[in-house]
């Protein structure tokens, strides 16, 4: 009885306490928007200095539990006026007004710190992360394509591939990639990051902004800050993911069996047409066998999926964030090629005392990729449609019954191999993991004035690459008689220790800051590899070594590695008077172990003038912001070969001899050696750049933008040059290259009734010019193995690596034109057995001397676009949102090496567009030769015939979304089409060709269609 009474009393007491607590607090919900009704991420706290608060999500929604007697909330958001709101119920809608300095108060991440956007004197571009997150790509830099002025991104379609990124042109023959700084750690790329993990991206494009990174900054710097929690932030869990499929686009249409048969007969290759008909049926003008090799090689649909889970929050003294990400992308090649990665991100900051703060950040990345054999795409272009993918009649073919070109009498060799077999008999995989931990301690030595921060950032990466070739036989060329395994393990172990002392102060209208920094870094890379033959096909036996489960002994072993260290001292000072006159100056001294010249010095200075703060602009109502900028500075590039610290030894047949020969007795070959007599004296390349720009916002901040002119010159350009009267070449700093152009970015943002919309775009021009080659007239370059036939050339006062050849003036329509042309007449007299005929190309005599010689070769264009651009449209109506992004380039050229290879391989197939445009008689074509002429050596010289426009306009992204206003679980669903359409005249899979623009059939870029959801709670 007593127990029952006690229980009843306890229940009653608990009920009273619960009622009391309930009566003392209540929960309110709300939404924060701007004057246009656009949702804002804002901080909401109780007025009067209370620590109780939260923040709104991306849809502007928030939920907050407050004491019952609370009457006011304080709401603030970056770029808007802070507002105090009276609470009259359990739901509140808050509208914030943009402050007068809407664009100036935005905080921008710069090197080793942050600055107000209004204080910047450098053209630092920031990325709209909401737009970036709409891209369904597995690599973060692909999401930036067309989004930032001055930044060109050249993508590849292979799963897990890293795009080529260029900032303001190309100023080096060695390394053109920017430096990536991820939460303080130097990286070569950010292919391990998912766009959803990134909070901010700042791109330091000019010397004033990037000089703080000194010898690593010549190609630009991309600063990446990943997501973190916030103080007094209620825990928030967000899932964001999508699943979809990729499909090939712009598939290159090749000649079908009928077209190819007619073409082969016209070029004198009709014998294997006849043999195909005998073996597989049909007629010589319409063979029965008609294989579409690209259709066989490509999947119609390939899976892509991306799943993200984020947990973020914070209390009065601690913030935290935790993220998981899984990505899987199949390749559109119908073979074993895919990429999958698993990422984990952790962050925690703690305010230990009022003056001491500590923090930890870590990225863990696990990945595995199966790499395709891209040679299959080249072979698919070459392959005749007159034989099948599989041919059971070839008895020796094993283990799969693949068809062979030799079955119809064609040549054997790499270029005529069965492309499906090439893709199938390939197992090239890389797996590994990467850890990026960083720790920091920050002490406020003088409140609001002096802080000291020390941060240790590390990177450890381990990769294991396995390449396995099984035993197979298709024909005498496409075969592998012994299985082969190559196993390579590589390790990167880097660290950076940064120590930063920052002083900020002000006196009246004078504001200044000084940063003093010291950085120590070390980078180590090591690779070991082993190979063996006769390895079983099962992966469980892919181990080499005595006692191992696999093969017992190796047939080859090797090791490679590098180790570099550096120490740096740097400083940055900023000053402004009344936020009107701005000054930024930086200086960095870099010491490196790579060169005999140990130290390099990199200064910069930037000036700014905010006109809208002048008295003579007070009464104008057009501009909300107008600022002029100017900057100058020097940057370094140490991505070149280091000094040769030892003699170079050459060996080979050229230096060997046979001794002891007598009668019929063969002597013994004795290896010979030669020691290089010249040592390289190399130092880093130096970029000197100046920039002038305008930042503006007008019409009540609805229109904003920037305009810049840049001019950057690379001095001490490093390359290898021959030594006169010697076999030797020496690597050194010999030349210079200049890049210059304009950058314009614009954005218009407004709302009409319930319809909000924005239009944004950017355009960049580029002029690239070689200024000096150290006394050389030119340097010949080109695609490996084809540089002699189809050269690229580096020449003073011309762009880097322009295509060098003859200009096609037309096609000889009849014999009278040939006889009237001195060039053709002279050629026919010298080559009576292979004369120029009607239907052959006519080359322009540039100097009108009646001869076709070296002086008639000209600049036919190069791979660098003269103009890059991008623009996007965004609309929102009530709960719907729609965005469309476009991207394109113009002024660049592509060398269509696919067509040009006919110079050596005249039995190869031809694309359908080529066949359709061939000259078939007088007046039929003045651009393409006849079928017979297409395999004649006269028409296969380096010329403008093989150089095509690389211009294109692509619909980059379309996304339609719908948001559900669930109070406790805001949800957005979206459908996305990524890269659905492209408009180009180029005769290839894609005009996006990396390197120097020689297209030998790159991996095609796919369109992606997906469905996704984002849920927060």
UniProtKB/TrEMBL annotation:
<dbReference type="InterPro" id="IPR008969">
    <property type="entry name" value="CarboxyPept-like_regulatory"/>
</dbReference>
<dbReference type="InterPro" id="IPR039426">
    <property type="entry name" value="TonB-dep_rcpt-like"/>
</dbReference>
<dbReference type="InterPro" id="IPR037066">
    <property type="entry name" value="Plug_dom_sf"/>
</dbReference>
<dbReference type="InterPro" id="IPR023997">
    <property type="entry name" value="TonB-dep_OMP_SusC/RagA_CS"/>
</dbReference>
<feature type="signal peptide">
    <location>
        <begin position="1"/>
        <end position="23"/>
    </location>
</feature>
<feature type="domain" description="TonB-dependent receptor plug">
    <location>
        <begin position="118"/>
        <end position="221"/>
    </location>
</feature>
<keyword id="KW-0998">Cell outer membrane</keyword>
<protein>
    <submittedName>
        <fullName>SusC/RagA family TonB-linked outer membrane protein</fullName>
    </submittedName>
</protein>
<dbReference type="Pfam" id="PF07715">
    <property type="entry name" value="Plug"/>
</dbReference>
<dbReference type="Pfam" id="PF13715">
    <property type="entry name" value="CarbopepD_reg_2"/>
</dbReference>
<keyword id="KW-0812">Transmembrane</keyword>
<keyword id="KW-1134">Transmembrane beta strand</keyword>
<dbReference type="InterPro" id="IPR012910">
    <property type="entry name" value="Plug_dom"/>
</dbReference>
<keyword id="KW-0813">Transport</keyword>
<comment type="similarity">
    <text>Belongs to the TonB-dependent receptor family.</text>
</comment>
<dbReference type="InterPro" id="IPR036942">
    <property type="entry name" value="Beta-barrel_TonB_sf"/>
</dbReference>
<keyword id="KW-0732">Signal</keyword>
<dbReference type="InterPro" id="IPR023996">
    <property type="entry name" value="TonB-dep_OMP_SusC/RagA"/>
</dbReference>
<keyword id="KW-0472">Membrane</keyword>
